């Protein structure tokens, strides 16, 4: 879900993406189509900002009004060793967001994956005490608050801490802090972040009844205890058939029952599918990556027209639902700018050619793109 795509694939796509973008001025952009409905966004990597006036960056500020850093702000990439900070990627992302006045998402403060082992340990390699880990978490939040302040509109405070059955993930955060990990994380964020920044919980598989009900219960518990939480991030790592539209709607209504706005985060459609080949549903990045084969990678050179139509219909039904509930949804963010920089090209099999967004590798617009834009225009 947050794994870096193959650099060679992306680099090749950038050769033609700017040329394909030349015709976009004649087309209604996504940000124009969804203005007044919800923010529409994408994710971007620091490498894409090396040429901020072309390629992925140009597509981002043309089509989106919200932006998320895919990896640069996570604990490991930002602070891999004690006292070692690699801020260049996050700084470039924030400068790009400022320049184009994006609704900016900080992703993410606390996540069990891509957090270095040293975070949980003392100088002798022993687990930190509860108090010491909370202090380390606070130091991280304070650094972001001091460096980026009110320039970040939304923080994914806790990412993916609940299992599909509704139990708490037994991460090292949980092992040290117990089931109060999430509550303590939100207390820290509320204490140090500007009050203008919205604090949300973000997770995948949010249509699973166990996880969905546990998140609703957690949010309502926070509300009763006076712990600030400002939204629910519902990751949209969906496939052509799952979850069903009814399952998505049921979850939207369940989350809306808390009174909080919903952020549809990390949205993509896995056209190739993964459970039939790998037994891998959802977006668990800990599943081992395998290698592409003709069986699990049947369209290395592009989709045939009938497949494009199937994909367009799936996107159309998804966005028809999102527009139906636009009063409950604050933001919809694709987990890529185009197919070229999607994690689904390399997970759960390296070398796959997947088609998970509305924009092709070369920057041209898919039939699905036009179908979605027409839906949005019709909803005005």
Beta-strand segment tally: 10
What is the molecular shape?
Answer: globular
Q: N-to-C SSE series?
A: HHEHEHHEHEHHEHEHEHEHEEH
CATH topology: TIM Barrel
Q: Provide the gyration radius in Å.
A: 20 Å
Structural class: alpha/beta
Largest sheet properties: 8 strands, parallel, barrel
Helix count from the secondary structure assignment: 13
Name the CATH architecture: Alpha-Beta Barrel
Mean pLDDT score: 90
List segments where confidence is low: pLDDT < 50 over at least 5 consecutive residues. Answer: 1-16
Q: What is the CATH superfamily?
A: Glycosidases
CATH top level label: Alpha Beta
Q: Cα distance, first to last residue?
A: 33 Å
Taking strands numbered 1, 2, ... along the chain, how are they ordered across the largest sheet? Answer: 1-2-3-4-5-6-7-9
Instruction: Assign a percent range to the helix content.
Output: 25-40%
How large is the share of residues in beta strands?
Answer: 15-25%
How many distinct domains? Answer: 1
What is the structure about, briefly put?
By secondary structure, the protein is of the alpha/beta class.
Structure description:
This protein has about 375 residues and is an alpha/beta fold. It has a single domain (about 5-380), classed as TIM Barrel, CATH 3.20.20.80. Helix content is about 40%, strand content about 15%. The protein contains 13 helices and ten strands. It has helices at about 5-20, 30-35, 55-65, 75-80, 90-100, 130-150, 170-175, 180-190, 210-225, 245-255, 275-280, 305-325, 365-380; strands at about 40-45, 65-70, 105-110, 155-160, 200-205, 230-240, 260-270, 290, 330-335, 350. Strands 1-2-3-4-5-6-7-9 form an eight-stranded parallel barrel, surrounded by six helices. α1 (about 5-20) crosses α3 (about 55-65). The chain is globular and about 60 Å long. Residues about 1-15 have low confidence and may be disordered.
